[in-house]
Amino acid sequence: MAQKTNIIPEPAETKASIILGHFTVNKKTQIILHGIGHENAFFYLSAYLKNYYDVVLLSWMDTPIVTNAIHLRYLKTAKPVTGAYTLTVNKDGVYIDGDDAEGVFHGVQSLIQLLPPVKGKPFDLPYLTIRDYPRFEYRGMMLDVGRHFMPVSFIKKYIDFLALHKMNYFHWHLTDDQGWRIEIKKYPQLTNVGAWRNGTIIGKYPGKGSDNTRAGGFYTQEEVYDIIEYAEKRYVTIIPEIEMPGHASAAIASYPWLSCFPDKNTKLPESMRADVSKNKNGKLVQETWGVHEDVFCAGKDSTFTFLEGVLDEVIKIFPSKFIHIGGDECPKSNWKICERCQERMKKEGLKDEHELQSYFISRMEGYLNKRGRSIIGWDEILEGGLAPNATVMSWRGEAGGIAAAKLHHPVIMTPTTYVYFDYADSRKEDSLNIGGFLPLEKVYNYEPLAKELSADETKYIRGAQANLWTEYINNPRKAEYFSFPRMSALSEVVWSPKAKKSWSNFERKLPTLFKRYDLWDAHFSKAYFDINASVIQNAAKNGIEWKLESKKVSPETTIGYIFPDNTSTYSNYSKPIPIKETGTGRAMVIDTSLTFTIDLKQNFKVNKATGHSTTLKFAPHENYRANGAFSLVNGIVSETGLSNSDWLGWAGQDMDATINLGKVTTVNTIQVHSIDEPGSWIYKPKEVTVWVSDDGMKFKKLASSSDFHPDTLNTGYYILDLNDQKARYIRIVAKNSGTIPAGNAGAGSPAWLFIDEIQVN
Ligand code: ACM
Ligand code: ZN
Fold this sequence. Notes:
Number of domains: 4
Radius of gyration: 30 Å
Mean pLDDT: 94
Strand content: 25-35%
Bound molecules: acetamide, zinc ion
Strand order of the largest sheet: 10-11-16-17-18-19-20-21
Number of helices: 18
Structural class: alpha/beta
CATH architecture of the largest domain: Alpha-Beta Barrel
Number of strands: 36
Largest sheet: 8 strands, parallel, barrel
Low-confidence stretches: none
CATH class of the largest domain: Alpha Beta
Helix content: 10-25%
CATH topology of the largest domain: TIM Barrel
């Protein structure tokens, strides 16, 4: 009989024992190591029990003790792949059996997750048998320490998080435009100069200039050796990434001759250059994000000698068979005008700069292959021809991975759409982040074996990895917050058999997981509980109601609301709330068992049009439909610019809306809310005109205006005075501004027109 546990990732098979019962770990329980090689599993378990529960158990090697013990043993598992194990709990104790020490280590991770997620509870383990093995051989997480340096203590904590989830590859992104993070003895300037920047962009790119605060850090080789040993004891392989030929600003700031143009100043974006408080000449470590054009010169042999020197030290330090050499986002603008690069292309018969990039990568691959190592590169390494033995990391969707698998190259899937953990997991902007929207469930439902691949081709998919880029993640707590709980979801994607993956089962395990995060001191996002608030039209079609939904993972989860905001007590939410007046509503999810609340605030502007039937002559563009014409009269006026999903948008077309007020009504003013953001191809309407009618057939033109009254974030109102006119039907036309004029972003294309609300008073 199947048995439910709270283990994440979900094991391949969990069977209840025929005899029901619990084995209780007590002070007298001993840990027995059968045979040599179980030290890592044993030390991990002992440290875990000591750190989180203050429990210390005696241990023995190969003793004949048969009762009240936790046994670590070698034993053939049913599925003898690396990392497979069997875990049995019966009246005599716990038996963790693996083909190899790694399997036993994974078994210990499952045992750990059979323990209570809080201190002070008895360790009652149900009698059961777990047979478990990984689905994918590559189960990874990437951490970017180039954009923001993370301390050694956190790197170790992060490796522990991987181990707890049975993940086995830590991809360490060590170099980027904003910092070089690993000591290279042959090239000391890389860390004397390249590990530090004079400041960091303020706010979201393009930002508000630099904070002018020196930032950076690097790992000494001694620290790196220590971290590698730490990871090895957890069966985690560290793959170092040394970026080339792009993302090279920090290396070039250290050794300007690596650039095609050593004497040219580092090009800084306008927003950063405006800041003249410090010297901005010469080659600089970048202080802002994005892609930078100063890359390694592919024409000079000295560039290759340098990179070989770096890699000599990297492969001496890192035992990993795989070395990541980047390869993404390399602008070719310098190469196009560099004499040496052009000469190289001629000499090697390369037809364009993509082939020059391919030459670069293949040459470095050759160097590493001769030394027994293999390269991994981002999917751009497919452009201009794939290096003969390269593994491709597919990040721009899955297309690169699919193409590489069809070429019979190994692939690791890391598509932005499913596993870019720097993307927001909430619609609420609760902290500065790169944007996007990647909720937990979407990660959970990722399937690395693309359906475009044949069964034979899927063999080249080694597994998947999530990437944590840290442009906007400037401290370890925030790195945890963006990792959890999504990393736990990913662990089921890469470990659990496809047939065992179940979102509802994962949801069932979340309350325990969240408590375990607290135990582990892992900061985590509670976006899973975000209130899904929407405004709906009432049944009479003459008003609005506020609908609130949230996930309920425990019986203690409730939604409360206040409307209007000046009321003092929350009411328990049970059904949509009629909103009959202008005011602010607040809602919160309260979970007394997990002790947290999530708060949401909504302003309503109720007027004579609110919730009334509205029709549109021209349908909005399919990407900007919100809830159709109803969104124009739903009582919600965007306060956050276009990021709000309530906008209707038309490309090159007018908004032509007619509102039925239900009966002849006295109307004084009409307000139409719009956006003016030419940089994003969005133009305010040329003119807004109002007609009225009593029968919906014959309309009388009453007023028009081309005065835009700005409010916040490039939004603003058109206000039309009707002077107490009587009307039942109101037609409002907002004239699209037409073709975007020359000299502007999107010149020659149709302008966008955006409207989110029409208010009638
Ligand atoms: C990447 O996100 N540039 C690999
Ligand atoms: Zn060059």
